[in-house]
Amino acid sequence: MPIDYVPxxxxxxxxxxxxxxxxxxxxxxxxxxxxxxxxGKAINALAAEIDAARxxxxxxxxxxRLYVLAHALDPDTGGI
Length: 80
Fold this sequence. Notes:
The protein contains three helices and two strands; from the N terminus they run ββααα. By secondary structure, the chain is an alpha+beta fold. A two-stranded antiparallel sheet has the order 1-2. Strand 1 and strand 2 form a beta hairpin. The two termini are 17 Å apart.
């Protein structure tokens, strides 16, 4: 199946009362929004959880991508 690449787009979030932005590809952003909705969390709350759990060697956008991927691959969440 061919994949049409669309460059990442900057998205605004608020963490700990401060505005920040992450650059995410549309499929990762949609997945992130879907996970937040499924878990009944605001997108900023989920981003704050991911931010608090990530290591210093991983940026927030990368941590969100890995979170979305892990969720997609987890059979308990309906993933692959």
